[in-house]
Amino acid sequence: MRIVIALGGNALLRRGEPMTAENQRENVRLAATQIAQIAPGNELVIAHGNGPQVGLLALQGEACKDVPGYPLDVLGAQTEGMIGYMIEQELGNLLPYEVPFATLLTQVEVDANDPAFQHPSKPIGPVYTKEEAEKLAVERGWAIAPDGDKFRRVVASPRPKHIFEIRPVKWLLERGTIVICAGGGGIPTLYGEGHKLGGVEAVIDKDLCSALLAQELQADMLIIATDVNAAYVDWNTSSQKAIASAHPDELEKLGFAAGSMGPKIMAAAEFARNTGKDAVIGALADIVAITEGKAGTRVSTGKSGLVFY
Question: Membrane-spanning residues where (predicted)?
């Protein structure tokens, strides 16, 4: 099977952990241990989150007063290389030497007229006091929004339209390579004046980009790996129930929160609806069972309604 795996941020950094290179390496090692189990006989493409890593680079950039901080598209490219390097190395330590790996910096096109640019909502970077944030907003043209009792910069989260490196991803897959790409939703780019491609200060949702990636690669399955074993109704209540399988239409009616499971549900539903193939939301630790149809929430157009565990 050709499988696209979208690794959630927990695969790189556990909640509350210091963002040290050692912690990230250890979490990547744990993720690689699971992924290596399904590598034999399958074509694998791995996407991943990068939010904490971009935030760290932004903080480090703020500490340097001699030069302005790098723009978000450049920070995204930096984290794609860093995280891809770790994934390649840890998987390479588990799989036969003959298995090739490649990490691709992945430019993803967005639309300059996407409504998201009129309503920035994605928080990035450090927190500030209200006064600090308002001053920076004037100086740098930022949009800002409350974050608890502090403020943060917010940027647009436009929908992905096209993955520029899709052809080399296909070429590498056809030659048996495990490909790491589209990290953090890819590097957001758009065509400007004179049809010149350039980066843009935005963040693309990683799961929506992974769904587009899987669709353009004609993948047999999209796995959205997170830190829970399934999507739940009535989550975190005494009546919570894990969803075993669902038609995308029924799943979307449940109204999952935009800040947690919502983008994963949207991505899974879009892939299933557009391809007729299955998308599964579940825990990375269950990845073997997910490929066998025994774990996770399977989103499919092949069956109607909802089925619970």
Answer: none
Please choose, from the candidates 284, 289, 236, 294, the residue with its C-alpha nearest in 3D space to the C-alpha of residue 260: 236
Which residues in 169-292 belong to E strands, given as ranges?
178-180, 187-191, 197-199, 221-226, 232-233, 241-246, 278-283
Residue 303 appears among annotated catalytic residues: no
Rounded CA gap, 233 and 227, in Å? Answer: 16
Half-sphere exposure of 164 (CA within 13 A, CB side): 16
- Considering the candidates 50, 76, 206, 277, report the single residue annotated as catalytic: 206
For residue 206, indicate whether it is catalytic: yes
pLDDT of residue 11: 65
Which of 122, 183, 184, 277 is catalytic? The answer is: 122
What confidence category does residue 232 fall into, taking pLDDT thresholds of 50, 70 and 90?
very high
**What is the amino acid identity at position 261?**
M
Percent of the chain with pLDDT over 90: 75
User: 259: Cβ–Cβ under 8 A, 6 or more apart, which residues?
Assistant: none
- Residue 264 among the catalytic residues: yes
Catalytic hit among 84, 229, 264, 282: 264
Name the class of domain 2-111+158-308: alpha beta
